[in-house]
Amino acid sequence: MEINKQTVIIYVVDDEFSIRDSLTLLIESVGYKVKSYDSALTFLDKFDPEQPGCLILDMRMPYMNGLELQEELADRCSEIPIIFISGDADVPISSKAFRSGAVDFIEKPFDNELLLKRINEETEKLLRTWPEAQERKQILKLYTKLTEREREVFMLIIHNHSTKEAAKKLKISNRTVDTHRAHVMEKMQADSLNTLIIMAMIGGML
Questions:
Q1: Which CATH number fits domain 9-130: 3.40.50.2300, 3.60.40.10, 3.20.20.140, 3.90.1150.180?
Q2: Fold match, 9-130 / 145-203
Q3: Which of 19, 42, 167, 181 shows a CA-CA span of 20 to 30 A to 51?
């Protein structure tokens, strides 16, 4: 999927209609598509992790607050950049948000130019990193299809262990190693050992 500024969605999650409305108008005025939600639960129900985007997130909301939504997105392995907005500059809370990966924490009433600057910065970063992130995600998806034994063989062969060495380490026959190796290559959709090693590097396994 090729992405550009027009394909990036800026999500606004805030329980106050006036904030959602003003932010939507502001962000759309500089060419972005905006989707706004009145609660974290509504956002989660509609959120598509395959869609590149940036999240403008209110910290204090009923039912599920901003930190709880951030944690839920992390559990879902979403890497969407999050810019928190809050009417309460609580240092412990903002520190926790940053430790959990938030890219900024802006106090209400916020400076429009500052917010747009941060959105532009995160969007530019997203445009640079999205293709590699999607490739990494696809590799990890293929990796999950391997059995436990196939993963063991996978790790040995990407570390340049021969069939004989892998068989000795795993206490199985050379032929069995070769069978697992063939399954690994097929499931990972790799046409050579070099391709498999490159995939392991991109996927963070090497």
A1: 3.40.50.2300
A2: no
A3: 19
How far apart (Å, rounded) are the C-alpha atoms in residues 21 and 15? 11
Report pLDDT digits (tens) over 11-41: 999 999 999 999 999 999 999 999 999 999 9
Residue 57 neighbours by CB distance under 10 Å: 28
N-to-C CA span, the chain: 26
Structural fold of domain 145-203: Arc Repressor Mutant, subunit A (1.10.10)
Long-range CB contacts for residues 135-143, cutoff 8 Å, separation at least 24: 135/202, 136/202, 136/203, 136/204, 139/188, 139/199, 139/202, 139/203, 140/203, 142/187, 142/188, 142/189, 143/188, 143/203, 143/205
Question: Is omega for the bond preceding 109 within 30 degrees of 0, making it cis?
Answer: yes
Give the sign of the dihedral formed by CA 142, CA 148, CA 153, CA 157.
Answer: positive
| Amino acid identity, position 90 | D
Burial of 53 (0-12, 13-18, 19+ CB in 10 A): buried
Is the whole model's pTM more than 0.85, yes or no? no
Side chain identity at residue 143, one-letter code:
Y
pLDDT tens digit sequence for 83-111? 988 877 665 666 766 676 677 888 888 88
Whose structure tokens read 């992130």? 133
